[in-house]
Backbone:
């Protein structure tokens, strides 16, 4: 056996020992102060890899519904939204008729909304033979997406009215109730080419306080977050 193999075998024997576990752990912490962080980061990376793999597999499953699967899954894995969204507020009911999927507090203390739809809804309008419908040579987004955008506009309007209620703001620790934004997660873009990407860019440019992304965009964003974290482990 090489020296490295002997060392590894010896360490494994020590770690398998049921005696003096706390003492052994403390010794490792003293000798390798960065070890604690590396172990925690490693465990976090492994857990997030499992979640990301589940995300990838679930994208192909048309039977997984918004409220039964996607909303609980993404609530559990809020890290996938990156650092822009990290505190889930206590209340997601906006008024008697409207309930947003998630109200988040962004890192700068403002309230943002995330509306989660379904990956298997047509993003662009299509004709009877499956070709894109166009208006003056531009792609038209689907009626379902139009409805989601109108819903997002209403959410923003209702939230802005909530800001005048000091009890609501106090309950949700909302100290900076200014111009909420809404992210709509809708459809897929895994096979998009430049035409579809350009059309989405133009669509988002035309919206105010609303951004539309696809489930694939969110998956890619989460992959980048995980890759960055993995470099630290």
Residues:
């Amino acid at each position: 056996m090489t020296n490295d193999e002997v060392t590894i075998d010896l360490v494994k024997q020590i770690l398998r020992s049921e005696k003096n576990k706390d003492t052994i752990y403390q010794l490792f912490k003293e000798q390798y102060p960065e070890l604690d962080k590396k172990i925690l980061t490693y465990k976090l990376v492994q857990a997030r890899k499992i979640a990301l793999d589940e995300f990838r597999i679930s994208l192909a499953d048309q039977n997984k519904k918004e409220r039964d699967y996607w909303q609980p899954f993404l609530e559990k894995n809020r890290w996938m939204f990156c650092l822009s969204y990290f505190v889930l507020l206590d209340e997601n009911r906006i008024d008697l008729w409207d309930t947003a999927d998630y109200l988040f507090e962004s890192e700068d203390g403002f309230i943002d909304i995330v509306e989660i739809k379904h990956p298997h809804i047509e993003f662009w309008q299509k004709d009877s033979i499956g070709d894109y419908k166009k208006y003056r040579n531009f792609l038209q987004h689907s009626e379902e997406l139009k409805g989601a955008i109108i819903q997002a506009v209403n959410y923003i309007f209702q939230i802005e009215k909530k800001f005048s209620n000091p009890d609501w703001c106090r309950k949700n620790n909302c100290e900076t109730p200014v111009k909420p934004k809404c992210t709509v997660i809708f459809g897929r873009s895994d096979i998009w080419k430049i035409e579809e990407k350009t059309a989405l860019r133009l669509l988002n440019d035309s919206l105010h306080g609303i951004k539309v992304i696809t489930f694939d965009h969110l998956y890619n964003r989460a992959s980048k977050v995980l890759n960055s974290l993995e470099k630290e482990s």
About this structure: The mean pLDDT is 82. The longest strand covers residues 111-116. Residues 65-232 form one domain. The two ends are 28 Å apart (CA to CA).
